[in-house]
Amino acid sequence: MSGPSAGGPPVAATGTIQPSPPDRSGEIVVLTHGFMANRWLLKPLARRLRRQGWLTSTWGYPSLRPSVLEHGRRFAQRLSQLNASPAIRRIHVVAHSMGGIVTRAALREGTPSKLGRLVMLAPPNRGSFVATATAGLGSVFRPVAELTTHPQSLVNTLEEPLGIEVGVIAAELDQLISLESTRLNMPHDHTVIRCMHSSLLFRRDAALLTNRFLEHGSFLASDDVAQPQGE
């Protein structure tokens, strides 16, 4: 009785050929958080991405006081360190909320040669209406003033990350950012999940969509994401 040839794809007991897992060796996904958050909130999403074979790293920053530009400079240094590592061949970024704007600020410092794709979760790309309503707090919490919807605010005058593939996942029930404000002016993929702002970090469907974009540069529906599953 003949069996599978040596070195071939795995064969299930039914005789059907199982697809080989994608080769993600040397690819890392760096996750970063938003305002008044921390790295621990990124752990559930990072864990789900690791199950898909990605190497992950979480990057945190003290979000309340320094300027978004300062956070961006520090994040640029972290990305530069990874870019210099011979063990890393491609760097992807997944950023939640203000973390997406910090990432934009980091990329204005220079685009790493190994940079791959960027997924932004509920980013205030055109500002937050809550930041606008509380702009008076900007004298204490500087990022608040920088993230208003005013046309001349930092976020509305900051360069967009041209030359890379960007996907945006917005939260339909977002209590901080309007759906329109999550969009960029540059070409990008955009999708919406019916949930609240921070829920995106904990939902299985958000993780599946993130993985899909990191793999293919698109949120185009497939069997695993066409019908998202709850929390």
Structure write-up:
The chain is an alpha/beta fold. The chain has one domain (27-216): Alpha/Beta hydrolase fold, catalytic domain (Rossmann fold), CATH 3.40.50. It has helices at 43-51, 68-84, 98-107, 129-133, 142-146, 154-157, 204-216; strands at residues 27-32, 55-59, 90-96, 115-121, 165-171, 189-193. It has a six-stranded parallel sheet, with helices on both faces. The radius of gyration is 19 Å and the shape is globular.
What keywords describe this structure?
231 residues; alpha/beta; Rossmann fold; 6 strands; disordered N terminus
Broad shape = globular
For the report, how would you describe the main beta sheet?
A: 6 strands, parallel
Tell me the Rg in angstroms. Answer: 19 Å
From the N-terminal CA to the C-terminal CA, the straight-line distance is: 47 Å
CATH topology name, in short, is Rossmann fold
Count of individual beta strands: 6
Poorly predicted sequence stretches spanning 5 or more consecutive residues:
1-15, 224-231
Quaternary structure state of the chains depicted: single chain
Number of helices: 7
So, CATH architecture? 3-Layer(aba) Sandwich
- Class of secondary structure makeup: alpha/beta
Strand order of the largest sheet: 2-1-3-4-5-6
H/E element sequence = EHEHEHEHHHEEH
Please give the CATH class.
Alpha Beta
Query: What fraction strand?
Result: 15-25%
As for the number of domains, it is 1
Mean pLDDT: 88
CATH H-level homologous superfamily name? Alpha/Beta hydrolase fold, catalytic domain
